[in-house]
Structure of Class III signal peptide:
Amino acid sequence: MVIKKLISKKGQLSMEIGILVMAAVAVAAIAAYFYASNVSNTGKQITNSTNQTTQALADAISDATAELSNLSG
């Protein structure tokens, strides 16, 4: 009975499954961190791009308005 328990691999299999699950959880946590940080950076890039586009359009409208004022005056 004791020899049978020493040769049994049930405990090792359980440990291997535990290590596999732990590794999967670690990989998922790392992937979630990088995903969240990339989403944050993307939001900042979109905000900067929107501000630059809005400023360029405002400048173009201002220039066009000034030219129309010069033509009518």
